[in-house]
Amino acid sequence: MRTTDFCRLALALATLSLGACGGEESGPIRVSAIGGPPALVNPNLQPLDPPSAYLTEALAQGLVRFEATGEIEPALAQSWIVSTDGLRYTFRIRRATWADGSPVTAQQVAARLRAALSRASRNPFKPVLGVVESVTPMTESVVEIALHGPRPNFLQLLAHPELAILQNNGGTGPYRLARTEPAGLRLSLPRAEDESEDSAEPGPDVLLRGERTAAAVARFAAGRTDLVLGGTAGDLAIARAADVAESRLVFDPVGGLFGLAFAANQGPLADAGLRRALAMAIDRDALAAAIGAPRLSGRLSLVAPGVQELPNPALPDWAAMPLAERRDSAARLVAGLGSAAPLHLRVALPDAPGDTLLFAYLRRDWRTIGIEAERVPMGAPADLLLIDQVAPSNVASWYLRHFTCDASAICDAEADKALLAARLAPSTADRQAQLAAADRILTGLVPFIALTAPVRWSLVSQRLTGFRPNPFARHPAVTLLAEEP
Questions:
Q1: How confident is the model at residue 72, as a pLDDT?
Q2: Phi and psi torsions of 232, nearest 5°
Q3: In the predicted model, what is the mean pLDDT of residues 221-238?
Q4: Comparison of pLDDT for 267 and 81, the residue scoring more
Q5: What is the CATH number of domain 61-172?
Q6: Which CATH number fits domain 256-452: 3.30.1330.10, 3.30.1780.10, 3.10.105.10, 1.10.10.350?
Q7: Alpha-carbon gap, residue 421 to 410, rounded angstroms
């Protein structure tokens, strides 16, 4: 069965189970996030899928948050001051209470942030939070974060749900969990303490559910949800197969990593020449065109082009070679290994239509250089595995720290030293020089085969006048309805 036929069948089955229903322009904002049931979990202990991330940022805001276009605005912190050298961020906590009514203190906020930095933390932002020197409560309502070096985009990290301020599985809003309904979790905006009962309602409730892509897309097509979040390149074909206006399918201009990491540094893949050959053989432009997201193009660099700290990332030495010449060179490298039988590689990919498409292109391209590929599920023993992650801030170190020796099977101690020097660099120029050095080392080492940028899509109803694409694919509920002039 072709991918498009599979997607149409999945949507048809999902639609039959939902039935038809007209759209609503009032009432709660209905959000379907792709993934499992939403749960308020500790990001220091387990990763957040889209439903749980959305719930976390609604119930447990951070010091700051993203507004609709991805700029920073106040959240738990009502204001902040950045020192002239960029090394100290001083936040004034607004008057806020936990779900049980007790007041929020700077000591509690500091303890929460320090927990994300702790040795036991499994927070995905921990590698780039090493820049934090200390988190100190200065008064009951003031907390200071001191850095080892200036980071112009530090606030972007603090705005993500991975750094939400939680305590005892609760947060400070802006929403409260009202109740659980068959349609999902109902979230409500409480009135401010200084508002009277005669004041206007603070805003519509949100009904949040987590579900599989086909069900979420079918629900949107039937007019039974206002927003579908969490779409990737893997499931884009399902959205395109639906009877939905093209203008309702919205793409976020995200950066990040989309490509293949090596699972081990042993056997034939311990040879950097073979890793180089695998990277050279891929027709990235054809793959990007097949994925079909707007403005998507192939990428050769480990760090995305245009990142503020490293505007000209390193390119492999074969970057200017035509594809046919690259493949001839790669085939000679593979033949030089002297193997009597074709090399056989296992590639771990999720089970989604777009991943089937991706594997078809990889298998075709690698066969041109004498390598056979087998697709295996994520989590199974594999030689390569797909990495599909959005960069949480506009910093080069996030990309490079994926390939330090404590994070990657393929690494180099000299690159690690350069990254440590970059973290402690006394000036922006020194930091950029060290990042560039690490980037050059890792590009030659080939710990990762970059393919394109990640893809993140949403289905957005006309009702959500405040929805805007942004570089972080974060769309907090409070931003979805534009204020009337």
A1: 97
A2: -130, 180
A3: 98
A4: 81
A5: 3.90.76.10
A6: 3.10.105.10
A7: 20
Query: Mean pLDDT across the chain, nearest whole number?
Result: 92
Q: Which residue in 458, 470, 464 sits closest to 29, CA to CA? A: 464
Domain ranges of the chain: 61-172, 256-452
Q: What is the mean pLDDT of residues 45-71?
A: 96
Residues 6 or more apart whose Cβ sits within 8 Å of residue 199: 191
Are the CB atoms for 346 and 384 separated by under 8 Å? yes
186 beta partners: 179, 207
Residue 161 confidence (pLDDT): 97
Q: Which two tokens stand for residue 464?
A: 């959500």
pLDDT at 4: 59
Using CA atoms, how far apart are residues 210 and 229, in angstroms rounded to an integer?
A: 10
What are the φ/ψ torsions at residue 31 (nearest 5 degrees)? -120, 125
* % the chain with pLDDT above 90: 85
Rounded CA-CA distance 72/154 in Å is: 11
Residue 220: predicted pLDDT? 98
Instruction: For strands 132-137 and 29-34, give the pairing.
Output: unpaired
Please list, in sequence order, all residues whose beta carbon lies within 8 angstroms of the beta carbon of residue 120, skipping any fewer than 6 positions away: 44
Q: What is the pLDDT of residue 8?
A: 54
Q: In the chain, how long is the greatest CA-to-CA distance?
A: 82
- How far apart, in whole angstroms, are the C-alpha atoms of residue 71 and residue 209? 26
Query: pLDDT for 431-448, tens place per residue?
Result: 999 999 999 999 999 999
Per-residue pLDDT tens digits for 353-412: 999 999 999 999 999 999 999 999 999 999 999 999 999 999 999 999 999 999 999 999
CA-only gyration radius of the chain, Å = 24
Are the CB atoms for 163 and 124 separated by under 8 Å?
A: no
Task: Give residue 180's pLDDT.
Answer: 94
